[in-house]
From TrEMBL:
Keywords: Monooxygenase, Oxidoreductase. Belongs to the 3-hydroxybenzoate 6-hydroxylase family. This is FAD-binding domain-containing protein. The lineage of its organism: Eukaryota, Viridiplantae, Streptophyta, Embryophyta, Tracheophyta. Residues 9-147, 263-309 form the FAD-binding domain. InterPro entries: FAD-bd (IPR002938), FAD/NAD-bd_sf (IPR036188), MOase (IPR044560). Pfam families: FAD_binding_3 (PF01494). Gene3D superfamilies: FAD/NAD(P)-binding domain. The keyword Endoplasmic reticulum does not apply. One of its GO terms (molecular function) is FAD binding. It comes from the Eukaryota. It comes from Papaver nudicaule.
Length: 395
């Protein structure tokens, strides 16, 4: 079949959270878009994800928050336990350091698939055209969509990896609906009940070459066994969650991030081409903001394009859209670079705080005194960010 070359007003390459949320945002303001994804299925790496108030504010703007809040309860609080000493600290997840209630619906964990299935996507394949400053996107029916390629520096390895899974308890897990974290030498684990029968768990650790090589093969039995060996000294609740894992939910991945100064100073748009989500600001999961920031991106980009679309009588010129995309990038640079920095530093302090080597006593002081007592209570405001509302498109 001869390829048919076609042009689309808006092409979104990538069917992850940012891509699908952006498509939904544009749809709500009256702009059609085409979403392309390499995989035949939705990208659902990771069994679940936590969404803070800033994500729920974005989901309300997208008009889908109510579909999720009816199925997932907000957490009542949380605990952080030092595995070595057994000391547990309580922390609130519903108020900021001033004692004020957070906006929106607070912190909840949801199944990742539940979020991604809010909108279906077209099956597609993409490839990079090395002979030009462009990308040719090939659809399965033989048509091609041309877009420009935006060059960005490669992401970097944080020196840590993460394992995630979903523990299944048919008879009920009997846990309180709160998040529990456990910190140990070079490792930090957490559990978060999603329902009465499901517990989302995760474990991040400093890179161990021989173990990483085994985990990278993707065998769920190996991932489970290596994880169980690593949490031998942990409370039984953690070991139970790992043992009861749905094998299909188990995943392993290196924790990658983009240097914040690359987000601040490097080009994030080229004409009418820009990036969002992990393509713009990959970050470590220590503040649970990867998916949240992606939802913010979608609303901010949709707001800029939607206001232009409505203001210009439902038409968009290339010159005008370039200006709006530049404004979107300007708005997101400092916000996302701040999240990358805060996430990385949080992980560094929390995971190093139980180290018994070298400056372990200093890291423990920074964790227990500086982070828990001063920084953590103020993160509520940082994570309660309001990305704005989408304009209403007239019928």
């Amino acid at each position: 079949m001869e390829n048919v070359v076609m042009k689309e007003e808006v092409v979104i390459v990538g069917g992850g959270i940012a891509g699908l949320a952006t498509a939904l945002a544009l749809k709500r303001v009256g702009v059609k878009s085409l979403v392309l994804e390499r995989s035949n299925e939705l990208r659902v790496t990771g069994a679940a994800l936590t969404l803070f108030s800033n994500a729920w504010i974005a989901l309300e703007s997208l008009g889908v928050a109510h579909k999720l809040t009816s199925a997932y309860k907000p957490y009542e609080g949380g605990q952080v336990t030092d595995v070595a000493s057994g000391v547990t600290k309580e922390n609130t997840l519903t108020k900021n350091y001033k004692g004020e209630e957070w906006q929106a619906t607070g912190l909840r964990a949801i199944h990742r698939r539940a979020l991604l299935e809010l909108r279906s996507i077209e099956k597609a394949k993409t490839r990079r055209d090395n002979d030009s400053f462009g990308v040719i996107v090939h659809l399965e029916d033989g048509t091609s969509v041309h877009t420009k390629w935006l060059g960005l520096k490669d992401v970097v390895h944080s020196g840590r990896c993460a394992v995630r899974g979903l523990g299944l308890f048919p008879e009920g897990h009997g846990l309180q609906h709160q998040i529990q974290q456990f910190v140990d030498t070079g490792r930090r684990s957490g559990i978060a009940p999603i329902s009465n029968n499901e517990v989302y768990w995760s474990s991040t650790y400093q890179t161990i070459v021989h173990k990483d090589e085994e985990m990278a093969k993707g065998d769920p039995k190996v991932i489970q066994q290596v994880t169980l060996e690593s949490v031998v000294g942990y409370p039984q609740v953690v070991k139970d969650a790992v043992k009861q894992s749905d094998m299909q939910s188990l995943s392993w991945a290196p924790l990658l991030f983009r240097y914040p100064w690359d987000v601040i100073f490097r080009r994030l748009s080229y004409g009418t081409i820009t990036v969002a989500g992990d393509a713009m600001h990959p970050m470590t999961p220590d503040l649970g903001q990867g998916g949240c920031a992606s939802l913010e991106d979608a609303v901010v980009l949709g707001r800029h394009i939607g206001n232009l679309y409505i203001r210009n009588g439902r038409t968009i010129s290339q010159e005008d859209i370039e200006v709006e995309i530049e404004m979107y990038v300007k708005e997101r640079r400092w916000r996302t670079s701040g999240l990358i920095t805060a996430s990385y530093l949080s992980g560094w302090v929390l995971q190093s705080g139980s180290s018994s080597r070298g400056v372990g006593w200093l890291m423990k002081f920074l964790r227990d005194t500086l982070f828990y007592k001063i920084v953590a209570p103020r993160l509520g405001g940082f994570l309660n960010y309001d990305c704005g509302k989408l304009p209403t498109a007239s019928s």
